[in-house]
Specification:
209 residues; alpha/beta; 6 helices; globular
Length: 209
């Protein structure tokens, strides 16, 4: 079997890690121990680990270069003496950034430590809204967020934007504002990270006052 692994021998892993393993297999990729190690540690893919044919490229200064073939993106990063880092896999094509992989990992770890520090519950809970979410569903999400905040957890509010939705950011912002309005009627909260546009959509973090 060489470097290949038996999935039946794995210990308990997180759902998102299992999804990455399943997707790797579905798309006919060779799942070696090296790849599995990357997935389990939840590290971003880099350089030749990236398997997409095309990527949405961002250079080291943050400038968006559009959708380019993977081979071209790898060549550009090589010429700059930097790495090609896949920063998200939830969009098609995936978003990749040119940069120093070691520094990027350090920044991610630093950000995660900061997010998990200073709360009673010590956890960051995710509330995911959708572009077409109804008001009743927003109320349900607000109820869940209220429970998290009461436990002392931080709440990360995400609203993905896909395709044409990216040109209607104001609609997404209105959905989040409605969510915050309903939540504010139930519990006092304050904003830790202001609402901002991410590569995949809108995101913010709130905590209990």
């Amino acid at each position: 079997m060489g470097n290949f692994v038996r999935l039946s021998s794995l210990s308990l892993i997180k759902p998102e890690q299992a999804c990455r393993i399943i997707n790797w297999i579905i798309f006919g990729r060779e799942l070696t121990t090296r790849h599995l190690h990357i997935i389990i540690l939840n590290k971003p893919l880099q350089n030749n680990q990236i398997r997409a044919k095309e990527v949405r490229l961002i250079d080291e200064t943050g400038q968006q270069l559009g959708v380019v073939p993977l081979t071209q993106a790898l060549e550009i990063s090589r010429q700059k003496g930097l790495d090609l880092i896949q920063v998200t896999e939830r969009v098609e094509p995936p978003v990749c950034k040119i940069g120093d992989y070691g520094k990027y990992l350090y920044a991610l770890q630093k950000k995660e430590r900061k997010m998990n520090a200073g709360t009673k519950g010590g956890a960051v809970k995710s509330i995911r809204l959708t572009f077409n979410i109804s008001e009743n569903d927003i109320k349900t999400k607000a109820l869940a967020a209220e429970k998290f905040l009461k436990k002392g957890d931080k709440v990360k509010v995400d609203l993905p934007l896909r395709g044409r939705q990216k040109g209607l950011i104001s609609v997404g912002e209105q959905k989040i504002e409605k969510f915050l309005e309903i939540l504010g009627s139930k519990i006092e909260y304050k904003t830790e990270n202001e609402l901002k546009k991410e590569p995949y959509g809108l995101s913010m973090i709130i905590i209990k006052k």
